[in-house]
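Checked the freezer inventory, then went back to the computational side. Two predictions to log before the end of the day. The first one is the construct we discussed on Monday; recording sequence and tokens without edits.
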Amino acid sequence: MSRIQSVFQNLQAAGRKALIPFITAGDPDGELTVPLMRALVAGGADIIELGVPFSDPMADGPTIQRASERALAGGMSLGKVLGIVRAFRAGDDATPVVLMGYANPVEAMGQGAFAAAARDAGVDGVLVVDYPPEECTAFTAGLRAAGLDQIFLLAPTSTEQRFRDVARCGGGYIYYVSLKGVTGAANIDFDELGRRIPRVRAAVGIPVGVGFGIRDAASAKRIGAFADAVVIGSRIIEEIEASPRERSAANVETFVRGIRAALDETAGAKP
């Protein structure tokens, strides 16, 4: 059983929902990323999504685009991201880490080399936004052989066929996009999500996390009433942007702790 599967199994047994925060590796600089990851865990994160910075992040809004630009300007690369995971693993062998990014850096390294390097660094899952399930059979097989979960996005526009494709290839959890738009957007239709998530879960057969547009404790709590996990990224990066460097980790921990407390108020809620 993977670390991701184990986390969801334990949370389900306790009637709790997963908190999955996102930060971009190398933002604001490479030396601060591991302390920020540890702050996320201290604040109550169950799984960490670590963004691999890319110059053309098509699914990301302005906030995460700025984070990628800062990280790339500081020299961050896929190889260095894997080094960050390795450093994090030296003090934390329990918290799952999911790399989230785009195909170009993976293709530049080579799919097989990437799968092996990610496994050796201690990565648990991979979400590559522009690898749709019907076009990445070999990549999926390579990740599975390395013991890594491949996580896919589903959205309000996803078809029943895409549900079936993701059920065949996906592992760990599904990242369900709460709205039509990019990360950090607003105007979530909670009622529509509440109707749709049970159908998605039944179709794919693995936990469903909801992200895009979740910015505070109140929205996290509403999502936690029907989802298996809440994913929050842009708002955390805004906290990093607004904080003096020496206060970044502490401020992020405080913010995440508030989200964790709100999410725990949904304990026992049936997904």
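The second is the one RB wanted added to the comparison set:
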Amino acid sequence: MQWQGAHVVITGGSSGIGEAVAVLAAERGAHLTLLARGADRLEAVRAAIAAGAPGTEVAGLPCDVSDREAVRATFATAVAERGPVDALICSAGITLPGRFLEADDEVFRSMMDVDYFGTLWPVREVAPSMAQRRQGSIVGVSSACALVGVYGYSAYGAAKFAVRGLLESLRTELVPHDVHVGIVYPPDVDTPMLAEENKHKPAETKAISGSIKPISAAQVAAAIVSGIDKGHAEIYADGQTRALARTVAAAPGIYRRLFDQKVRKTRR
């Protein structure tokens, strides 16, 4: 992809992975539209990125990506101001781990609203134009939890599996139009969201995920930028998750037994 002068839209652009991707895209000369719900934080990040990349247009548009009409209006503004979208990175997301039998219904709804529909609605806004122009890149941030079911993630994992299903199917439809679609499968990422998430993880979840050291948002961002450049359908930021994807597809029973053992051990 030619980053110089491209219009790149990033949801969840005010923190974590989205902010890190924005920094790299600005360094490459892209014009940015950052979307996030918190206006104050969004403006602070926008100003910092603009100051570090003179000559690059950086806009921050407050938007709840789970709101269909808000997304439609926000993208109309972005396109009117900076032209058609050349790359969309869907990084907005929330998570609240917990046991299925103890979770409120609202937890499952909110995960789907933000993580799945918050990916779907922005994609719906850019895909037609990209297909018509026969160019563009769409990348959605899924999760290692979309590769295998994990204790405590029945709400979050389901939403991220849905993101995976959406983008895998979309890729097959947009390939004939020369549009790239990629899915990112990060493990735990060292962000404020992870710090908050860790407060709610059941002991069984910690036992399963504790052996994997969190990676930085910058590492995931670098993998996303490289994945866009190379047109990769699957984007991994670390070797462990790549190995998980390969082995769980070939021998899922190994992971089921391993996870079950950890759960039993934790409960003793």
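For RB: The first strand starts at residue 7 and ends at 11. The domain at 7-202+214-250 is CATH 3.40.50.720 (Rossmann fold). Let me know if you want it refolded.
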